[in-house]
Amino acid sequence: MYLRYLEELDGSGQHTASSDALATLCGTTPAQVRKDLSFFGSFGKRGLGYPVHELTVRLREILGLGQAWQVVIVGAGKIGSALAEYRGFRQRGFQVVGVYDKNPDKIGRPWGDAAVRDITELDHDIATQRVDIAVLAIPADDAQEIVDRVVQAGVRAILNFAPTQVHVPAHVAVKTVNMAMELEGLSFALTNRAD
Amino acid sequence: MYLRYLEELDGSGQHTASSDALATLCGTTPAQVRKDLSFFGSFGKRGLGYPVHELTVRLREILGLGQAWQVVIVGAGKIGSALAEYRGFRQRGFQVVGVYDKNPDKIGRPWGDAAVRDITELDHDIATQRVDIAVLAIPADDAQEIVDRVVQAGVRAILNFAPTQVHVPAHVAVKTVNMAMELEGLSFALTNRAD
To answer: Which band of pLDDT confidence, cut at 50, 70 and 90, is reported for residue B44?
Structure first.
């Protein structure tokens, strides 16, 4: 979140930002801002604030955003398609090197400059090129099997849209975007909130 | 998560489930299961386990999942489209009553049985029909303005896909699905994890 606002400030030509200003933007306290940013080095100067550009560059480095990450998408549906067209995806260095599906109607269909590939080719493809991240946009029932296969093939990070928990070894990072749980959270809030 | 696994067990005809079994399914401890489920009433019987169907029904009630929620989607792009076609969306009682966009090329295009409406009609539409939830699938720059408008018009829950924090009064629930942050989390993990 800090990076998001710092990029905005940097883009608008602002050279420094106080912890007060960052706190207001991020909806937190100046003390929290100072604490959080102190993890990344001593940037702030009392009375001067944070150097916006320098801190932006440092945060991008820490997040690994200068690097190019090779991504496969499993599940050639709307979610995968929305993600591939999401500007922020490319901005963060995520490059789609393959899209896979098990549905014969989808296999071979054009996808960007390439075509949707048969899921049976997934393991071989990952073993023969570098793949950093697998995006799972598939039903819950298929998720763990695919996770096991991509982890076995060497993938170290997974973005999971399947509405289920998946299990991975400790060296693999997983982020789950659980739409079902978000929807239930809203439903719960509407049901139980006093009017 | 409990509901998800209980529904599976219920669907496969299982009558009871032990806290041990639920803990294994959910990746937690039996003690945590007992603690969590005790919030909803005294369901478990020592030695007998939890009554699967009864607990499923109760959890659905608590989450408000028997109710029909009327939803507007702001932003007629791929995210809104993926969401509207997501089976879990209807299963949880979410019914899309309107889709809005500001892009003249999109306004009037078919969307399910209806058509994409002009964003300028949003406030009037919300004021004249019940709308429980607004889904924001729009750029960050437009998000707060739309939030202010739908809240003003009476919406009490927001599902935000815009990559920004939005501010709402205390009586409004917000869930943000921040894809940018998930991607950065994976990038960070790949950069900083020892091989």
So the answer is: low
CATH number of domain containing A24: 1.10.10.10
CA distance A109 to B127: 44
Residues near A187 by beta carbon (within 8 Å), at least 6 away in sequence? B63, B64, B65, B67, B69, B92, B93, B94
> What's the domain range around A107?
69-182
Among residues 58-87 of chain A, which lie with CB inside 8 Å of chain B?
62-65, 67, 69, 77-79, 81-83, 85-86
| Distance spanning both ends of chain B, measured CA to CA | 32
Enter the tokens of residue A31.
């003390």
Same domain? A175 vs A87: yes
Verify that A101 and A178 share a domain, yes or no: yes
Torsion of CA B110, B112, B118, B120, to 10 degrees: 170
A23 and A8 in a common domain: yes
Element containing residue A117 per DSSP (H, E): strand A117-118
Instruction: Find the mean pLDDT for residues A90-113.
Output: 91
Residues A83 and A156 in one domain: yes
Residue at B189 is within a domain: no
Q: Do A55 and A92 lie in a common domain?
A: no
| pLDDT tens readout for residues A115-166 | 999 999 999 999 999 999 999 999 888 999 999 999 999 999 999 998 888 9
Q: How far apart are CA B97 and CA B71, in angstroms?
A: 6
Best mutation site among A183, A188, A193 for testing chain B: the one with the most B CBs within 10 Å? A183
**How far apart are alpha carbons A113 and B184 in whole angstroms?**
25
Query: How many domains, in total, are found in chain B?
Result: 2
Residue B190 falls inside a structural domain: no
Does a structural domain hold residue B194?
no
Cβ-nearest to B175 among A69, A165, A182:
A182
- Exposure b/e, A174-187, CB count within 10 A at least 16 = b: bbbbbbbebbbbbb
Residues of A in contact with B180 (CB under 8 A): 4, 88, 92
Predicted model pTM: 0.76
pLDDT value at B77 more than 80: yes
